[in-house]
Every structure is written in structure tokens, then in C-alpha cells.
Sequence to fold (222 residues):
Amino acid sequence: DGGITQSPKYLFRKEGQNVTLSCEQNLNHDAMYWYRQDPGQGLRLIYYSQIVNDFQKGDIAEGYSVSREKKESFPLTVTSAQKNPTAFYLCASIPSLNTGELFFGEGSRLTVL
Amino acid sequence: KNQVEQSPQSLIILEGKNCTLQCNYTVSPFSNLRWYKQDTGRGPVSLTIMTFSENTKSNGRYTATLDADTKQSSLHITASQLSDSASYICVAGSYIPTFGRGTSLIVHP
Fold:
């Protein structure tokens, strides 16, 4: 079935470590997004990518990095520079910017110990 | 600044009752308005999507309305079920969607 797969579902990290969250889609969508969700807040955009080998910073990009080497994959790295990384991270995709339904993965919960 | 405001923040209703959730948006450019349902610890799932020219869109017991002049949308849930307990998120889209904080709905038996 077509969809977006995020992994891992749960991740624990020690302070000072980088971690990478995986996001893979088989929907043939051009645009992909990474969001962060904290309790009581709306989704906040970290990074987005419209096409392969191109990505743009969102509202809260500091301490995060991404790559888009393949259309299907948009991994997010949470670096040690992110001061408060404990959160629920959501990956999403859309056929192209400004069109169609935004599909979400099941999310990855990162906890910093 | 683009903004999406949702009300109420939380709502508790009895099973079988109807309810309406509100969304006010200030987004430019505006292309569409989406409603999502998010269960705890899961990714949001789309309920409806409307362009600025559409006034209403239904999906089973969920009916969304849109007034592009007043920049308001509502989501009406009919004959609520226990499985409707979730967070409902309003999203006003341009090429970078703006998300509301959601309304937390609890349906009691």
C-alpha cells in the first residue's frame, strides 16, 4: 500500500548525541515536510523540500539538518545543537506544493535522557 | 503573520450527541482549508479538504463548512462515537500550510 513510513517509532538519546529520523514515501510525491509537535502547540515546520537535492528551512530549523538525495526519502537529523529536542516528529508529503492532500507518517517520538 | 485559531481548546460530549468545532484563519495566499483528525501518538489523518470556492464538504459523519469571506470554517460531527475522541486540527494551506493548535474532543459513554 502507498504511504509514508517513519522510523523509529520511539527513540531515546543521550544529551550531546546526534540522531537521524527516517522518512520514506512511495506515493511519488514531489514535496516533503518535517514538523515538530509539542503538547498544546500546533505543528511547527522544521524543513521542507520541493524537489530532489533542494530543501528550505522552516520556522524552527536551528539544530536540525536534512537531505533529499532521493525522491522517496527525506531523513531528519536532530543534532546536539538542538537545545530541547524531546518532541513528537511528523513527516508529511504532498504531490506538489500548493496542491492536493497532505499525507502524514505515524510519527517518531524522541526523548532525550 | 499567518495564523489559524481554533475553538474550543477542548470539548467533552456524550456519545450520540452532535458537536461543532470552529476555525478562524488569517492566511495569505489562501488556497485550501483542511481538517485532520489526530489520535494520541499517531499521525494526523485527513477528514476534508476544501478550496476557497467550496462552501461545504462531507465525509461520513463529518461535515466541514467554509466561509472564505469571513475566513471561518467549522467541522460538525454528527452522532458522536467513542472513537471520535481525538484532536481535530484545522489547516489553512498555501504552499506552506499553517496549522491550528487543535481541539481536543472527548466522547464519554
